[in-house]
TrEMBL record:
Keywords: ATP-binding, DNA damage, DNA repair, DNA-binding, Hydrolase, Metal-binding, Nucleotide-binding, Stress response, Zinc, Zinc-finger. It comes from Antrihabitans spumae. PROSITE patterns: RECA_2. The middle region has homology to RecA with ATPase motifs including the RadA KNRFG motif, while the C-terminus is homologous to Lon protease. A motif (RadA KNRFG motif) lies at residues 259-263. DNA-dependent ATPase involved in processing of recombination intermediates, plays a role in repairing DNA breaks. Stimulates the branch migration of RecA-mediated strand transfer reactions, allowing the 3' invading strand to extend heteroduplex DNA faster. Binds ssDNA in the presence of ADP but not other nucleotides, has ATPase activity that is stimulated by ssDNA and various branched DNA structures, but inhibited by SSB. Does not have RecA's homology-searching function. CDD domains: RadA_SMS_N. The gene is radA. Residues 358-461 are annotated as: Lon-protease-like. This is DNA repair protein RadA. InterPro entries: AAA+_ATPase, DNA_repair_RadA, P-loop_NTPase, RecA_ATP-bd, Ribosomal_Su5_D2-typ_SF, Ribsml_uS5_D2-typ_fold_subgr, Rubredoxin_2. Residues 71-222 form the RecA family profile domain.
Length: 461
């Protein structure tokens, strides 16, 4: 006879311990260790191995050539930037998790989604379930953003069974749950928002979506580290994981795909949040470029890839003489370590010294650049402000700079230059092995940083 045993496993990292603990010793997550029953077979102790009885499946396995793939056709939501990230739209029966910090605009975005969904075709109904606000509060936001429609249904509920009853009564094709951490299952132990409750609620809503073909969008909270709150299995249960991010001091919002079973997971959508609601930005490059008649020393234009989308961004640098033993270095919107590396390379390889200058480097309009392809633009902006000579007008610079001063190739140069040419740039300083160049823009290949500075900055020596 099998002897019952117990083991304890962390739902976040799957680490197993012999006894229950409040904090996982491997990943440090609190409240994620659950008891897992184990049956130790007698035959295993004898060295024979555990035996399992075969069961006749109710549905036989089907050759992949006979499986109908048309059931997973994405339906457009009417919000273009969201459809871009999702890979064309929402697939019926799919579960999408949208995570983001408080106040970033998740509820405003999803209210626009249900509004556009109800307008999409006659008879389509959308159900918006909120566990954080009252129905009256959601209606006030809908009035302010113009998202009122007769086929959008509101329910202020936090009980899972009641939510399932609303779904049965309304008969929607799209359900928004805001948020999954506020829902509770009465037949499951644990506090609301805890690991056990969140997993049970997500499992039930996922089963509903798969069985009925209803698309479900879940709103998820994030931790102070920026990760999705709740057990790690939450991200494995859903089909799509999206991260909605933005700066409180800027109206720009970025929607990034983290996981997508129906399309690419590296797409990025751009939105602008304002008093009247949220609006998609199909051409975000113009936000990150400062329009001026004449070139100014200390500026350079880089072309970065955010997912599959090329975006132009302006990098500004300022240097001022300093009498301090350790002059100040301030960086905004860029990786501080890469800026420090460019300062070291400029001093060592090009003999441009910043040790007696305060250095300030920033991007325009709150753009964040972490890609190595902006190395050359950072170096050009720094050299330009030190020489008080502006970069040649109509020029973009693309390339990663190594510690020896060489300019290295980056990916998708053709797509980057096509975007630069569309916005009116005519010259591009690029690495030697740049690949195909689109028509309408002149590529100037360079081998090292010194050559790049001479081509980008007139009269540089």
């Amino acid at each position: 006879m099998a002897k019952p045993k117990s083991s304890y496993r962390c739902s976040s990292c799957q680490h197993t311990v012999a006894k229950w603990v409040g904090k996982c010793p491997d990943c440090g997550t609190w409240g994620s260790v659950d008891e897992v029953p184990i049956l130790a077979a007698v035959g295993t102790a004898r060295g024979i191995g555990a035996q399992r009885a075969a069961m006749l499946p109710s549905t036989p396995a089907t050759p992949i050539t006979q499986v109908d793939g048309t059931t997973n056709i994405a339906l457009p939501t009417g919000v273009g930037e969201l459809d871009r990230v999702l890979g064309g739209g929402i697939v019926p029966g799919s579960v999408v998790l949208l995570a983001g910090e408080p106040g970033v605009g998740k509820s405003t975005l999803l209210l626009e989604v249900v509004h556009q969904w109800a307008r999409r075709a006659a008879g389509e109904r959308a159900l918006y379930v909120t566990g954080e606000e009252s129905a009256g509060q959601v209606r006030l936001r809908a009035d302010r953003t113009g998202a009122v429609h007769e086929r959008v249904y509101l329910a202020s509920e936090s009980d899972l069974a009641t939510v399932l009853g609303h779904v049965e009564q309304v008969g929607p094709t799209l359900v928004i749950v805001d948020s999954v951490q506020t829902m509770s299952a009465t037949d499951v132990d644990g506090v609301i928002g805890g690991v056990t409750q969140v997993r049970a609620v997500t499992t039930a809503l996922t089963s509903l979506a798969k069985a009925s073909g209803i698309a479900v969008l879940l709103v998820g909270h994030v931790t102070k580290e920026g990760a999705v709150a709740g057990p790690r299995t939450l991200e494995h249960l859903v089909d799509v994981v999206l991260n909605f991010e933005g700066d409180r001091h800027s109206t720009l919002r970025m929607l990034r795909g983290i996981k997508n079973r129906f399309g690419a997971s590296d797409e990025v959508g751009c939105f602008e949040l304002h008093e009247d609601g949220i609006e998609g930005i199909s051409d975000p490059s113009g936000l990150f470029l400062h329009n001026r008649a004449n070139a100014v020393p200390g500026t350079a234009v880089a072309v970065t890839m955010d997912g599959k989308r090329p975006m132009l961004g302006e990098i500004q640098a300022l240097t001022t003489p300093s009498q301090m033993p350790t002059p100040r270095r301030a960086v905004s919107g860029l990786d501080y370590n890469r800026v420090a590396m460019m300062l070291a390379v400029l001093e060592s390889r090009v003999k441009k010294y910043f040790s007696k200058h305060e250095v300030y480097v920033s991007t325009v309009a709150g753009m964040r650049i972490t890609e190595p392809s902006a190395d050359l633009a950072i170096a050009v902006a720094l050299a330009s402000t030190l020489e008080t000579t502006a970069m040649q007008a109509g020029t973009v610079v693309i390339g990663e700079v190594g510690l020896t001063g060489e300019v290295r190739r980056v990916s998708n140069i053709g797509r980057r230059l096509a975007e630069a040419q569309r916005l009116g740039f005519t010259r591009a300083v690029v690495p030697l092995d740049h690949g195909p160049i689109p028509a309408g823009i002149k590529a100037i290949p360079v081998a090292d940083l010194g050559e790049a500075l001479r081509e980008a900055i007139p009269g540089f020596h």
